[in-house]
Amino acid sequence: MMAGEPDRTEKITVNLGPVDLGRIDLLVQEGHFTNRTDFIRTAVRNQLTASAPAIEHTVARRTLVLGTQHFSRRELEAMRDRGEQVHIRVLGLATVADDVTPELALATIASVEVLGAFRASRAVKSALGSRIV
Prior knowledge:
Layout: H1 18-29, H2 36-50, H3 52-62, E1 65-71, H4 73-82, E2 86-96, H5 102-108, E3 109-119, H6 122-127
Parallel strand pairs: 1-2, 2-3
Organism: Actinomycetospora chibensis
Pfam families: RHH_8
Protein name: CopG family transcriptional regulator
């Protein structure tokens, strides 16, 4: 886990019809939301809250780490020295430290399944390409 790291956001694109967009703009104009983004974030959070039981069940069933998981060079070197490999399975954010070499990643990371964001150097992502689900 990456304690103390501020939450980062990922940018997504949403296409909406003109009527829905007009409704959002009306709510913004009337002061119910500060802007379109505020409305969309609130709507997403409300839907995720309503879907929480289904999400929790799926996380448990699929043995996913919920939240943030970080892999440091030291941690991966210790795994390599023990002859171990990790299957990264995260719902949230998974990161591999910038000083991890592609060779170390290949020796220690058997697979990567991230529902959310996976951050690693371009070289590590390229080396793990066939192992990223």
